[in-house]
C-alpha cells in the first residue's frame, strides 16, 4: 500500500505525533483513518465574486469531487489567489507570479497526492500551470469555460472585443449614450470568461494542446451540461494520474510546447500566450526563445475563424469540435507521441476526431486555410533588439509595411492626458509610441498597448493607426498594435529613447522594426537617461527587482529551473 500524502510531512519534529494530531483534526471531515490511505486530491478553488469570470465555479468543484470519489480518491478543496482582469488594479499581470507562487507553495505545503487546478480568467490558467510545473506532482487543469454569445439588435456580441469596438464608436460619436448603455447590458450575458479567442480562451486551448487538460475542455461553454461532465471526468482522471505517477514534467516538454504554439498560431490566439508559454517552459528548465514562435508561425496555417482575428466565437468553436478539431487538422505538424493527462498520447486523443462539413467556415481544412501563416509574428530591429510581437491577422493590411513619424507618450498617464488634447500634433499616418508601460516601468506590463485613436481622428473616420509599446494588449483587442518591445524603456531599452518626430519603419513581411536614428544619436540620448524609481516596499518592490523581460516570460529570475539540454 502506498504511503498516504498526509504522512509526507511533519510539522512538529516527531513524525508519529504529527500524524496523530493531523488525524485528530481531520476527523471533522467525516473520513475514517483508512480513507486517507486512498489518493488525496487537492482541488485548487479560485472562486471569487470579485473575479466575475470565476463566480460560477462552485458546481464545478462539486462535480470534480464526485469524479474523485467515483475513482476511489479523497477530494480536499483549498483556495488560492483569484485574479480577475476587470476588477484588479493596476493589472493582473503584476500578480500573475504571485498567484503562481501561491499555487506552487500550497501544493508543496499541503498533504495531497495530486491536484486539480481550476482556471479561467486570463492570468489564472498560466499562473496555475507555472506553479504546478514547479511543484511537479500529478496535476490536471480545467477552466470555468467561456460565456455564451451576447446579442444586440441581431448582432452577435463578444466580450471584450465589442467592448473596445463600441467604446471607440462612442468616442467617435457614432452611437448614442442610450445605445451604449443597451450594448453594455448585452456584452457579458452569462457566467464564464470572455467568449472570443482572447487570453483566457487562448490559454485554455494551449493547455489542452500541450496535454494538461482533457480533450475538448477549452471550448465547452460555462453554461453547458458538458462542462459538468468534463469536471467529473477530470476528477476521475486525476486519481488515475496519481496511480500512474504521471506529473507535469512528463507532459510539458519541448515538443508538447511546440504543439501548444502550433495551436496558438492556428486559432489566432492572444499575444499574451507568448509570454505565458515562455514562463511555463522556464519553470521546467526548457529554453523557449521568442524566435521559436515566429519559426512555427511561418509553417502553421491559420484555420480557426475566431474573433478578434476572424468571424465566430467560442460557442461556435465548441459546436465545430473545439481544440481537438484544430489539432486533427494540424496532425501532420504535431508531435503526436507526446504524453497527455489522458494517460495516452496526443495521437490517441485525436485518432477518432471528425469534422462536419457544416462547420467548415469555423474550422478550415489544413489544405485550404484562412491564411497560410499563423496569427502572431515576431519583429526585431534596433527599436526592439530582443523582439516585439504583432497579430497581423487582426491588423490593417495597409499598415503592415509602413513608414511614419513617431508621436511619443512617456507614460500611460501622459497618454490619458494628451491623447484627445486639440493641440496635439498628430495625423493618421503617424505612429503612436507608449513608453514605460513594461514589466518594470508600469509596473506589471498592463494591457495598455491598444492606444486609443485621438478623438478628432475618430470623427474623421480613422479606425486604426500603428501603435508601438512595451506594454501588452488584451487578447480580445485588435488593430495594428506592436507589443512586448524588449528591452523595455524602464531598463534602458531603445523604445525609451524615441522622441516625437523620429521616423520609424514597420515591415512585418520581413519582420523588421527600425528606428531611423543613428547609433551615435541614440548613445547621446542614452547618456542622459535615468532609470525609474523602484517601489519602496513589499511585493511591488520584489516584482520590479526580479521580473524578467517579456521575451523571457516576465517570470521572476529566482523561480527558473536549471536549464535542460536542448532535445528538440
Automatic annotation (TrEMBL):
Q: Does the keyword Protease apply?
A: no
Q: Which domain of life is it from?
A: Bacteria
MF annotations from Gene Ontology: lyase activity
Q: Which Pfam families match?
A: ILV_EDD_C (PF24877), ILVD_EDD_N (PF00920)
Q: Which residues cross the membrane?
A: none
Known EC number: 4.2.1.-
Q: Which NCBIfam families match?
A: PRK06131.1
Its name, as the record gives it, is: IlvD/Edd family dehydratase
The upper taxonomy is: Bacteria, Bacillati, Bacillota, Bacilli, Bacillales
Amino acid at each position: 500500500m502506498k504511503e498516504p500524502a498526509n504522512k509526507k510531512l511533519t510539522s512538529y519534529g516527531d513524525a508519529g505525533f504529527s500524524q496523530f494530531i493531523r488525524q485528530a483534526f481531520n476527523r471533522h471531515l467525516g473520513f475514517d483513518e483508512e480513507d486517507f490511505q486512498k489518493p488525496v486530491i487537492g482541488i485548487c478553488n479560485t472562486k471569487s465574486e470579485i473575479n466575475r469570470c470565476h463566480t460560477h465555479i462552485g458546481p464545478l468543484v462539486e462535480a470534480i469531487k464526485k469524479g474523485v470519489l467515483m475513482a476511489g480518491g479523497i477530494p480536499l478543496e483549498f483556495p488560492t489567489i483569484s485574479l480577475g482582469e476587470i476588477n484588479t488594479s493596476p493589472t493582473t499581470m503584476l500578480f500573475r507570479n504571485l498567484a503562481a507562487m501561491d499555487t506552487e507553495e500550497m501544493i508543496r505545503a499541503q498533504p495531497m497526492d495530486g491536484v486539480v487546478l481550476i482556471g479561467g480568467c486570463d492570468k489564472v490558467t498560466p499562473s496555475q500551470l507555472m506553479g504546478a510545473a514547479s511543484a511537479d506532482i500529478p496535476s490536471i487543469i480545467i477552466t470555468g469555460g467561456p460565456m455564451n454569445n451576447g446579442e444586440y439588435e441581431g448582432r452577435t456580441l463578444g466580450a471584450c472585443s465589442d467592448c473596445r469596438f463600441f467604446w471607440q464608436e462612442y468616442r467617435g460619436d457614432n452611437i448614442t449614450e442610450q445605445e451604449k448603455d443597451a450594448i453594455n447590458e448585452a456584452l457579458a450575458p452569462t457566467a464564464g470568461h470572455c467568449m472570443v479567442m482572447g487570453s483566457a480562451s487562448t490559454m485554455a486551448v494551449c493547455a489542452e494542446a500541450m496535454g494538461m487538460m482533457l480533450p475538448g475542455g477549452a471550448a465547452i461553454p460555462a453554461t453547458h451540461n458538458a462542462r459538468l461532465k468534463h469536471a467529473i471526468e477530470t476528477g476521475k482522471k486525476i486519481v488515475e494520474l496519481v496511480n500512474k505517477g504521471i506529473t507535469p514534467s512528463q507532459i510539458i516538454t519541448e515538443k508538447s510546447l511546440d504543439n501548444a504554439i502550433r495551436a496558438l498560431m492556428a486559432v489566432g490566439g492572444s499575444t499574451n500566450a507568448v509570454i505565458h508559454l515562455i514562463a511555463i517552459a522556464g519553470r521546467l528548465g526548457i529554453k523557449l526563445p521568442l524566435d521559436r514562435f515566429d519559426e512555427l508561425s511561418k509553417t502553421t496555417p491559420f484555420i480557426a475563424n475566431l474573433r478578434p482575428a476572424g468571424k465566430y466565437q467560442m460557442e461556435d468553436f465548441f459546436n465545430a469540435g473545439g481544440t481537438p478539431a484544430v489539432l486533427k487538422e494540424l496532425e501532420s505538424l504535431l508531435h503526436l507521441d507526446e504524453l497527455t493527462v489522458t494517460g495516452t498520447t496526443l495521437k490517441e486523443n485525436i485518432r477518432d476526431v471528425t469534422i462536419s462539413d457544416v462547420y467548415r467556415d469555423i474550422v478550415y481544412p489544413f489544405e485550404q486555410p484562412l491564411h497560410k501563416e499563423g496569427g502572431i509574428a515576431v519583429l526585431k530591429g534596433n527599436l526592439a533588439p530582443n523582439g516585439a510581437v504583432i497579430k497581423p491577422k487582426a491588423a490593417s493590411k495597409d499598415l503592415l509595411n509602413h513608414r511614419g513619424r513617431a508621436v511619443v507618450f512617456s507614460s500611460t498617464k501622459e497618454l490619458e492626458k494628451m491623447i484627445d488634447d486639440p493641440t496635439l500634433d498628430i495625423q493618421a499616418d503617424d505612429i503612436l509610441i507608449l513608453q514605460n508601460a513594461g514589466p518594470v516601468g508600469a509596473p506589471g506590463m498592463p494591457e495598455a498597448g491598444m492606444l486609443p485613436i485621438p478623438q478628432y481622428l475618430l470623427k474623421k473616420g480613422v479606425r486604426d493607426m500603428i501603435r508601438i509599446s512595451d506594454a501588452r494588449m488584451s487578447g480580445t483587442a485588435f488593430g495594428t498594435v506592436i507589443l512586448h518591445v524588449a528591452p523595455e524603456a524602464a531598463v534602458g531599452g531603445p523604445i525609451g529613447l524615441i522622441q516625437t518626430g523620429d521616423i520609424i519603419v514597420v515591415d512585418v513581411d520581413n519582420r523588421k522594426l527600425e528606428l531611423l536614428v543613428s547609433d551615435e544619436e541614440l548613445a547621446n540620448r542614452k547618456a542622459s537617461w535615468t532609470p525609474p524609481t523602484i517601489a519602496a516596499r513589499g511585493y511591488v518592490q520584489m516584482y520590479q527587482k526580479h521580473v524578467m523581460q517579456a521575451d523571457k516570460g516576465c517570470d521572476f529570475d529566482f523561480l527558473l529551473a536549471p536549464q535542460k539540454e536542448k532535445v528538440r
